[in-house]
Amino acid sequence: MKHVMKWSVSRRALLLVAAAIVGAMVWGGVASGTPPAGVSTKTTLADVTVIDTVKADVPPLIKFRTTDQVEVAQFSNTAQPADPTIGQAAFSSGWHMHTGPIIIAVTAGELTFYDRAGVVGSGCRVTHVSAGQGYFETPGEPILARNEGTVEADWTTTQIIPVGASQRVDVTPGFCGVS
Length: 179
Known about the structure:
Layout: E1 5-9, H1 11-27, E2 40-50, E3 55-58, E4 62-66, E5 70-79, E6 96-97, E7 102-108, E8 110-115, E9 125-130, E10 134-137, E11 143-146, E12 153-162, E13 169-170
Parallel strand pairs: 1-4
Antiparallel strand pairs: 2-5, 3-4, 5-12, 6-13, 7-10, 7-12, 8-9, 8-11
């Protein structure tokens, strides 16, 4: 399966998109988003500002560009499975979106992603990502990740966002009946 990445990142454009998303949420009367649930840990591995612009093309598959400085953050994450014997809920990231592209690398267990990318109506696209596989989160699209398995899930996250932008924007729950 070929993946074509075409990102032309303009700091101003991403900031405008992020501001529009936040503005729509505030003026639309959103009382709260959906914070993560279940047992999980998140460790920051790096959070840096890339001080130069990037033009990295690998035709025909990859086109990656920035026109200003960007923030690159990497995290190591662990999510426990549900444990009904002690009343522990399965990990859920809660419905949210990001202001830039996110690259997920699952290193143990499995994560299930529910997203709205390209979906018309009230449905969701469901993707199961196992250890040794990766996943791209599309900027500005509502998404939710869960550990629906019976073992711990571990993954690293690489996030590329405009300097000063929010790393996560919670969104109103209710997509495709999943929380």
